[in-house]
Amino acid sequence: MDPTDGMTPADSVSAYLDIGGDPTALAASLFDRGWISPTSIAVWTDIDDDGDLDFSAGLTGPPDAQGIALRGSVILWRCQGGSYLRSEIASARADFGPPALREAQDLTGDGTPELLVAYPLCGAHACFAQFAVFLWDGPAMADRFKGASDDMPYPELSIEPGGPGASADIKVTATGIGSVGAGPYRIWSRTWRWEAAARSFLSGEPVVEAPRYRIHALYDADDAFAKRDTSTALSLYLRVIEDDSLLDWQTTGERRPELAAYAAYRRVLTFLESGDETSARAEIDLRLEGLRGPASAYAELARLLLTADPDRGLPQACGDVRRHVAEHSEAILGPLDHGYANRTYLAADICPVS
Q1: Minimum mean pLDDT range among 8-12, 174-178, 187-191
Q2: How many separate domains does the chain show?
Q3: Where a domain ends, among 151, 177, 197?
Q4: Which residues contact 72 (CB under 8 A, 6 or more apart)?
Q5: Are both 223 and 343 inside the same structural domain?
Q6: pLDDT tens-digit map of 32-50
Q7: CB-based contacts of 314: which residues, under 8 Å, 6+ apart?
Q8: Other Cβ atoms within 10 Å of 288 Cβ, number
């Protein structure tokens, strides 16, 4: 393919196809010239089910004065009546990098392939992508991917086939943040499924991985307590204390003793909230009595709960705990800080009974 001087990559492809250039050599030529957008593919496929192969690729834009390629777009050349009709299906977007054609396959189950496009976006410590699914919708291609995916750091895309004649699921998994200060990352995903009535891929609820890190098991325990699921909360707090398979974030030093002590304190609170003072006292005797070092701060919280005036009740005792936390925030809240990708605990979170 010999581009005419001054032509953009897209213009050169159009000129090449218009003179009957060999389509089998086109994709390789585009890669050789560096005209394909990063991570993009180029495909020959029948996009409109008319029996003729169409060409699509994510191309870079024309170079600037310094010779650097501009944003670019994903373009479709649709074969019709012996000529190729060119259309820009995924234009450049502000703040995003050049859109890339990632997949060309039948995602809806109707026997005709769709084009899956990614708009990349990278910051200081993470990259994101907004995905789009373009399908032939009469006179033009239309994006049928609904909902944001650009809040998912370092996304991994997977297509999960639904079998012959069935639509596929599009699963996007957020895998992490490239910064030590973010702390341990809890992987989560969303799955988009084809809804025939809406003629769109719609996203389901986020699915969070089972905890691998001790701090994430602690979050699940606190969440169970907030839902008044007493048995689950007690079981999860016990896992924080005893499960050697859970990972600990070593960046700020060994924090397992403090997390275990906090979990034991929360077991005391959970027993008291359910009216079981005997078990609360037994928990202190078993796991909090005699603690030394930083972990002892949580033993003090448990003692505050039990030494409060019983006539005032647990909400008032929690008020005493929250005031104590506010006065000793570094000792109590500091060990619970696991980086900005994780929760920030406040005094109100330590004893949430009011």
Answers
A1: 8-12
A2: 2
A3: 151
A4: 9, 37, 58, 59, 60, 61, 92, 98, 99
A5: yes
A6: 988 998 899 999 999 999 9
A7: 272, 273, 305, 353
A8: 22
When pLDDT is cut at 50, 70 and 90, the band that residue 4 belongs to is: very low
Q: Tell whether 73 is covered by a domain.
A: yes
Angle (CA) 172-210-336 rounded to 5° is 110
pTM of the model: 0.88
Domain range for 60: 9-151
Specify if 158 maps to a domain: no
Half-sphere exposure of 234 toward its Cβ, with a 13 Å CA cutoff?
14
Contact 100, 116 (CB under 8 A): no
pLDDT per position as a tens digit, 239-295 = 999 999 999 998 766 799 999 999 999 999 999 999 999 999 999 999 999 999 999
Q: Is residue 266 part of a domain?
A: yes
Q: Give the residue from 106, 136, 151 where a domain finishes.
A: 151
Pair 109, 44: CB distance under 8 Å: no
pLDDT per residue as tens digits for the range 209-222: 999 999 999 999 99
Burial per residue of 121-132, b for 16 or more beta-carbon CB atoms within 10 angstroms, e otherwise: eeeebbebbbbb
Quick one: 219 and 345 in the same domain? yes
Question: Any residues with CB less than 8 A from the CB of 207 and at least 6 apart, and which?
Answer: 188, 189, 190, 191
